[in-house]
Design brief:
Chain lengths: 386, 292
């Protein structure tokens, strides 16, 4: 009994503190929501995003705040943990829009959590900016754009287009083979758009082979690819299968350059793939060694004492987009802000972000091309598909 | 034509991995009439034993190989003692054995996840990845080695069962365990021998599998295919298990190579079902009545 009573008291205390926070905002403060995982598997990414938002808001506030419609405002973030859970993402969104009355929400990082938020955002007329949610359905479903969902990362099909453009223009490939995982949406999306764009450029897909999730032997498919003798081989799946299929390709005597997407980068790829992936390329959101991101990296490290993850860079650009959107809207209002986002152009550290009114995605955003040299990920160039 | 032979080589190589795993299922089935699903877990442990033998203990390949096989031999016997012996003594129906086997398989997998961790491990390169080229055909050095060692192991196993006294006893027990025991054969020893043999081969299979692909706690799932190959060839028959494995491996490869890999499992299993309808005991299976 005693324990239960203590628990109730503790809960009441927390409720009071929360109420105090919610009621204490001054009129010249813009409240922005953030949600993501602060506990569970993805906690390291969530914490990284929230830290980034907090740091940037603090920097804006120390510089006197931001000017919206001729008036100076301070920025305040209200961050909640959704535990990486879709249902919890819905609950947290309701709390942010209903109770905290935020003007916009940054996050979450996962597509699975971002997709169910849409109806609540729409009802509350509060725009959401997803960070690393790359599934097309986050902003567009059944051919219709979701009015209050935006994002700062490129989408899965786009990676396929970038890979195709890079292979054709930069590597000079005229024939390509694709090996992909039929059981995975991510892989299917990349493959479809790689094919489409490679053929549009005048290239020829000479082999289009698939495997099933969980397969470990790719030699029958690779032997077929070998017979077709393509200039490059596109492998849009995750590092484990990449390493296995790359090793098997080399065993069969295939010497072609291999090409992939953001499922590649991992320490495991280098240790498992070794020489087989040497000299190969993949598409990523950014490169850690890119000069454009160095300033943010140092600031983050100085404040928090550790390196930022990939998520921090995209959270950074979500904040940039938000601030530019508010300035463009000229007033602190979710509806006006959503309108302002459409067609806006912002130079982020991960690339140029031009939000398309039709898709709410950063169309034509630069992707980073990374090459594997001596077991290291070496940044090559920024590349945008037309 | 080059394509045909290359795919045949691929198929034989995949089939030989299946064969090493499939005989383990067949051996146990021939005596105890149930499918020992813990076999996959034992194979997985074999892969880990070999891996740590090579990396932590820095043993030469042959020594690591032997360590893994003896290690899995002991594990297989331990599994029999803990998971099956109490059931045998109580004369439990065969369904209980299958459930116990699944439990043992899940247990082994989770012990590895909890102690070693869920991440992938990669074997150091024992055989160079440069293939042996015969004209336009490429044969992996590891594949060749695997094929030869599998063949040697399987021949030795068949000789053991054909020529030794205990081998004869195993054959007798596979016809009728009860009658065998009545004739004064120590069936407990036979069962231990069978598990030991299966375990030894599981170690061989595990090391090769780890070298060929990678080591991770869920390797055991792959053995589903070899179990199917064992059923295909006829559960309980060793030559059947080998034949079934080679046929399944080759069919899979040819379907993936000439039609589409999406049809691979579909066609392979349609053929399997057709064989089982025409010959319910598999290609070379022993005829048994259900004892349950």
């Amino acid at each position: 009994m005693k324990r239960i009573r203590a628990l109730i008291i503790a809960l009441l205390a927390v409720a009071l503190i929360l109420a105090g926070c919610a009621g204490g905002g001054k009129s010249d403060t813009i409240k922005v929501g953030w949600l993501g995982a602060l506990t569970g598997d993805q906690a390291v990414w969530g914490e990284n995003e929230l830290n980034t938002v907090k740091m940037l808001f603090e920097e804006y506030n120390n510089a006197g705040g931001i000017e919206v419609g001729g008036k100076k405002y301070k920025l305040e973030v209200i961050g909640y943990d959704n535990k990486g859970d879709a249902q919890e993402a819905v609950n947290v969104t309701k709390r942010l829009t209903g109770q905290d009355k935020v003007v916009a929400i940054i996050g979450p990082n996962s597509s699975g959590n971002a997709i169910p938020m849409a109806p609540i955002l729409e009802k509350a007329k509060v725009p959401g900016i997803a960070t690393v949610a790359t599934n097309p359905k986050v902003t567009v479903q059944d051919g219709k754009v979701k009015p209050y969902n935006f994002r700062v990362c490129f989408i899965d099909p786009y990676q396929g287009a970038v890979a195709a453009g890079f292979a054709f223009d930069r590597l000079g490939a005229r024939t390509a083979a694709v090996l992909y995982d039929v059981g995975d949406d991510y892989s299917q999306g990349l493959r479809e758009f790689f094919k489409l764009n490679f053929e549009k450029k005048g290239g020829k897909i000479v082999a289009d082979e698939s495997f099933n999730s969980g397969d470990v032997d790719f030699r029958p498919q690779l032997s077929k690819i070998k017979a077709a003798n393509p200039d490059v081989i596109f492998m849009p799946y995750f590092f484990k299968e990449v390493a296995l299929s790359a090793n098997q390709a080399r065993e069969l005597g295939l010497k072609q350059v291999l090409l992939g997407g953001d499922g590649w980068p991992s320490d495991q790829l280098i240790s498992m793939g070794g020489k087989a992936v040497e000299g190969c390329y993949f598409v990523n959101h950014l490169d850690y060694a890119d000069p454009a991101v160095q300033d943010f990296k140092t600031r983050y490290k100085a404040k928090y004492g550790k390196e930022t993850e990939l998520n921090g860079f995209l959270a950074h650009d979500a904040v940039l987009l938000l601030v530019e959107g508010l300035k463009k809207a000229g007033k602190v209002n979710g509806e006006a802000l959503a309108k302002a986002f459409e067609g806006i152009e912002v130079q982020g550290i991960t690339g140029r972000i031009h939000i398309s009114p039709e898709t709410h995605n950063p169309e034509g955003k630069d992707a980073a091309i990374i090459k594997i040299v001596d077991g290291q990920y070496v940044f090559q160039e920024k590349y945008a598909a037309q | 034509m080059v394509q045909f032979f290359q795919q045949l080589i691929n198929g034989l190589s995949i089939g030989s991995v299946y064969a090493l795993m499939a005989v383990g299922y067949s051996l146990v089935y021939s005596i105890m009439n149930f499918s020992n699903f813990a076999h996959g877990g034992v194979i997985m442990l074999g892969a880990y034993f070999g891996f740590f033998g090579l990396t932590l203990l820095k043993l030469p390949f042959a020594a690591a190989f032997l360590l893994a096989s003896i290690g899995t031999l002991l594990v297989a016997i331990l599994v029999e003692r803990i998971a099956y012996k109490p059931l045998r003594e109580r004369k439990a129906p065969f369904l209980y054995f299958i459930i116990s086997a699944m439990g043992a398989s899940i247990l082994l997998e989770n012990i590895v996840i909890a102690t070693i961790g869920p991440t992938f491990r990669t074997y150091p390169e024992v055989f160079p990845r440069v293939p042996i080229n015969i004209g336009p055909l490429a044969i992996g050095r590891l594949d060749l080695m695997m094929f030869i060692i599998s063949a040697v192991c399987l021949t030795l196993l068949i000789l053991f069962i054909d020529r030794t006294k205990i081998g004869k006893a195993i054959q007798a027990a596979s016809y009728n365990v009860k009658a065998c025991a009545l004739m004064g054969v120590n069936t407990d020893r036979i069962i231990l021998t069978v598990f030991g043999l299966g375990g030894f081969l599981a170690g061989v299979a595990g090391v090769f599998f780890g070298m060929k692909y990678t080591v991770y706690p869920q390797i055991g799932n792959i053995t589903t295919k070899s179990f199917i190959a064992a059923v295909f060839g006829g559960l309980g028959s060793l030559p059947g298990a080998v034949l079934g494995s080679v046929i399944l491996g080759t069919i899979e490869t040819f379907v993936a190579g000439y039609l589409s890999s999406q049809f691979r499992d579909l066609i392979a299993f349609v053929i399997l079902i057709a064989v089982l309808i025409l010959r319910p005991t598999g290609i070379m299976g022993k005829v048994t009545e259900d004892k349950a």
